[in-house]
UniProtKB/TrEMBL annotation:
One of its GO terms (cellular component) is mitochondrial large ribosomal subunit. GO terms for molecular function: rRNA binding; structural constituent of ribosome. Component of the mitochondrial ribosome (mitoribosome), a dedicated translation machinery responsible for the synthesis of mitochondrial genome-encoded proteins, including at least some of the essential transmembrane subunits of the mitochondrial respiratory chain. The mitoribosomes are attached to the mitochondrial inner membrane and translation products are cotranslationally integrated into the membrane. Residues 156-237 form the Large ribosomal subunit protein uL6 alpha-beta domain. Keywords: Mitochondrion, Ribonucleoprotein, Ribosomal protein. It is found in: Mitochondrion. One of its GO terms (biological process) is translation. This is Large ribosomal subunit protein uL6m. Its main location: mitochondrion.
Length: 252
């Protein structure tokens, strides 16, 4: 018995050897012998980035400075790429953001607004970096003007947290240390990165403050690794409004 593919090939060879004037195909077989045309995976049109095309407002007291393009080696591909640096200065500090050269920054100092665009919207990589650059720049502007915070909640019997000083372990003058009691035989002590502040308004709460949101959330994730929330008793370290779905106890 012929398979559908071999049967179709045999029929095509038979039709090729038969004069075209005597070939009559039923209507339901005509689409199968037509030359297939290439079609796109998606029929929708490419849209610009919803975040990237939204203007950013610069609050009073915040200044932006855009440098000239410079060459930098990519640490992942070791290729030399062209970059530009945006320096965001505000009342709380200064942050530097490196952006690709194909991301255009239109800074209107009089209207205090920033608009981002890319050179070629048809390039997928440029469309991806469009919204990513907008998000980073928005976080930097908010960080130097208002600051970012993260709240750690310790849920568990005997879980406690304090913020203390350890002069003999300081990496820089005035460094704070978050000391945690999480049920281990020893307390966990973690030094804060430079530019961050911490406080413990309650024994089971830790408040992290700083201007760099990425740095704050990264340090919060390091603390969370010591007691990742577990789904049976709901114990662990939770960041901000993090919740988990509890499971029923396993019964043999």
């Amino acid at each position: 018995m012929l398979t559908p593919r071999t049967g179709r090939q045999a029929l095509q060879r038979a039709l090729a050897s038969t004069p075209s004037s005597t070939v009559i195909l039923p209507g339901f077989l005509v689409p199968a012998f037509q030359t297939p045309t290439a079609r796109n995976f998606s029929a929708t049109t490419q849209r610009p980035s919803k975040l990237g095309r939204t203007p950013l407002s610069v609050p009073p007291g915040v200044e932006l400075a855009i440098s000239e393009p410079f060459i930098k080696k990519d640490m992942t591909s070791y290729l030399k790429t062209s970059k530009r640096r945006i320096t965001v200065t505000g009342p709380l500090g200064t942050l530097d953001l490196e952006i690709p050269e194909y991301v255009n920054v239109n800074h209107d100092a009089a209207a205090r607004r920033v608009e981002l665009s890319v050179k070629d919207r048809n390039e997928r990589n440029q469309r991806e970096m469009w919204g990513t650059t907008w998000s980073y720049l928005n976080n930097y502007i908010m960080g130097v003007s208002e600051g970012h915070t993260a709240v750690l909640r310790l849920v568990g019997i005997g879980y406690r947290a304090t913020v203390e000083a350890r002069p003999e372990q300081e990496e820089y003058p005035g460094q704070q240390f978050v000391c945690l009691k999480l049920g281990f035989s020893h307390p966990v002590e973690m030094g804060l990165p430079k530019g961050m502040r911490a406080s413990a308004p309650q024994p089971t709460r830790v408040l992290l403050e700083g201007i760099d949101k990425e740095q704050i959330m990264q340090f919060a994730a390091k603390i969370r690794r010591w007691r990742v929330p577990e789904p049976y008793k709901g114990k662990g370290i939770f960041i901000n409004d993090e919740t988990i779905k509890l499971k029923q106890k396993k019964i043999k």
